Task: structure prediction
Amino acid sequence: MVSLFAVYITANVSGGHLNPAVTFATCLTGHTSWAKGGLYVIAQVLGGIFGSLMGVSQLVHLWLYLCQCIYLAINVITICQFCTRFAI
Result:
């Protein structure tokens, strides 16, 4: 339902070519030529690949940040244990 709404909203701007299935359907119905549809599909697949790589890079960045935070927390706990050992 959301995809149908998205195609309807963007149809005037991009022709509703949001994914290869929509592009294939427009080629089958004759609204888009097969050559132009092939270029659209290539662009959509490359866009999906690059978008997913950006998402993965953000997850890797987040993972590294969390590892640094955990490492820092372990060091703080170790320092606190060391300092309190002599205070007791």
Observations:
- Residues 2-87 form one domain.
- The chain has one domain: 2-87.
- DSSP finds three helices and no strands in the chain.
- The longest helix spans residues 34-87.
